[in-house]
UniProtKB/TrEMBL annotation:
<keyword id="KW-0677">Repeat</keyword>
<dbReference type="GO" id="GO:0032040">
    <property type="term" value="C:small-subunit processome"/>
</dbReference>
<feature type="domain" description="U3 small nucleolar RNA-associated protein 6 N-terminal">
    <location>
        <begin position="9"/>
        <end position="104"/>
    </location>
</feature>
<dbReference type="GO" id="GO:0034388">
    <property type="term" value="C:Pwp2p-containing subcomplex of 90S preribosome"/>
</dbReference>
<dbReference type="GO" id="GO:0030515">
    <property type="term" value="F:snoRNA binding"/>
</dbReference>
<dbReference type="GO" id="GO:0000462">
    <property type="term" value="P:maturation of SSU-rRNA from tricistronic rRNA transcript (SSU-rRNA, 5.8S rRNA, LSU-rRNA)"/>
</dbReference>
<dbReference type="InterPro" id="IPR056907">
    <property type="entry name" value="UTP6_C"/>
</dbReference>
<dbReference type="Pfam" id="PF08640">
    <property type="entry name" value="U3_assoc_6"/>
</dbReference>
<feature type="domain" description="U3 small nucleolar RNA-associated protein 6 homolog C-terminal">
    <location>
        <begin position="341"/>
        <end position="573"/>
    </location>
</feature>
<dbReference type="InterPro" id="IPR011990">
    <property type="entry name" value="TPR-like_helical_dom_sf"/>
</dbReference>
<feature type="compositionally biased region" description="Basic and acidic residues">
    <location>
        <begin position="308"/>
        <end position="318"/>
    </location>
</feature>
<comment type="similarity">
    <text>Belongs to the UTP6 family.</text>
</comment>
<feature type="region of interest" description="Disordered">
    <location>
        <begin position="301"/>
        <end position="322"/>
    </location>
</feature>
<dbReference type="Pfam" id="PF24892">
    <property type="entry name" value="UTP6_C"/>
</dbReference>
<protein>
    <submittedName>
        <fullName>UTP6 small subunit processome component</fullName>
    </submittedName>
</protein>
<keyword id="KW-0539">Nucleus</keyword>
<dbReference type="InterPro" id="IPR013949">
    <property type="entry name" value="Utp6"/>
</dbReference>
Amino acid sequence: MADIVQQRIEDRIPALEQLERDGLFTNKEVKSMLKRSTALEYKLHRTDFITYIQVCIDKNIYIGYLEYDRLGFYEINVLELIKKRRARIGYHFKREEIEYPIIHCIHHVFRRATKNDVQLWLSQVAFNKEWVTKSQLSKILSSMLAIHPDKLVTLWIMAAKCEMEDRNSSESTRHLFLRALRFHPEKKKVFQEYFRMELMHAEKLRKQQQELEQAKIDVGEYTFSPEILSGKLAELLYRDAAQKIKGAEFILSLIQIAAIFDFTKELQDTILQDLQCRYVDDCMMWDFMAKSELDAAGAPELQSAKGRASDTDRREEQTSLNSRKSQIDMYCLTVDCSLFQRKERLLRVLQSAHDAKLLQETFYKNWLQVLLSSGDTVSATQIAITATQHFSQSLEMWIFSLQTLVHLESTEAGHLFQEALKHMNPKESLPLWQLQADWSMTSQIPEDTETLFQKGLLSPVPAVSSTMKEKYLEWSYKTGGYKRARKTFTGTHQINLHEHRPFTRTFFMKMIEIEKEQETPKMSNLRDYYERALREFGSSVEDLWMECIKEELGRHGNPENCGKLHWRAVQMLEGESVECFTTKYALLQTGHM
């Protein structure tokens, strides 16, 4: 094994020497690279391939060559580092002597690695996309599919996309899709992308024909097939797919793909006729047909505005409702289509579905939006309250209805907030408390707002209690200034905020900011706030210690306390926080922070 490793290392030496001669690396770095290469080559014999060739996800972060050893991203990162240093010094020569041996080395490692891991193949593909030729990438994708033909559909699509876009080979792309269908005969995605490819191929040929005709170039006996130019290959593929994959949703997806191309009207009509014949009971088909009719209603073919309106009304409200699907689905589709038309007709459909108790939550929101835009505040208030009764377990419905009442400045808002808190799970009630607090601070008298905060502080849900505590302190400062905020914090009220758990770091920082905003902030108060914060979060938040130390270094502080704070922080912090704190403290001492 040692002989093999030594041979491979010796093969690397010329490239490393060239790096040093060209000034891209120092002698010390070259020696370090050689040492690291030797260690990793020995690891390869223990099948530790991924460590050796791992692709760094974020290639925009570089902290020096010596850091690469610690990160474990080696060979590919060496290439990236060379690339950056070339750009820095403006040296762009001798790539064959420098980069090519490293690329060859990485390829060699991939070839030696096990091929059972799809992720390893994808890493190789990602590397080749950036560093090697398109032909080489095509070979790698072919090898991958030969070993893993039945794993992921996306692998086949990726390979086909490479052939179509990078190598401009429609024939190879078609061959890949046909092979993919052998292993995945009922996968929608394969048919959809194959269908798209055939239309793209036809579009490319049409553009070539047009350019040749415009240039008046004689192509001899070569002719463009009218069948291919009109998308007949895509139509044949559609017929095959429709036999294997059932469902209106799949057929509609093909229509949407065909609609992208401007020469497929005949193909779209063919697919649409099949859709109407095969899926007469499918609500998705009727939904599509209704929307299509709405689009047609705005077209020039209709002779008059009156004709357009009446035709649209009739088609929109009747087409969907005449199908054999359930009434609730048809109401949904009717409402969805109605959103494109006049408000009067939409409101009529919404009211009809509401009366039948078939209106879904989403459409109550649409209803409220239409009523608000129409200025019908009375109906909007009534519907907002009714919607919460129908969907009393929906947090989104409660919030939307409450926001509506708040916007309308309705007197029913306070009662509805109480109802919402009764019906919703306390663990999910935080958004309701936040919305109610915001409403109360702007719409209610201070006594009622303070009562709300006192109630929120007693919530058994930690998130609610801590959030209300922060809002309470902020509101106290806005309404009563520093003295009221200080009084709220220190607890001459019924509840002592600074003793009432749970705490958040934001709560303490708000009080610190309030103190620092004063003309003559008291350092004794700041120390008290920081001490309380450190008592709760000092074991995990190194930044809190740094902020406290900076405060002591400031105009009102005492720099002699910094040493004590540093000692306490090192003793109290846990895990990686200790190292982070030590680094930041050193930077602060040297003036780099």
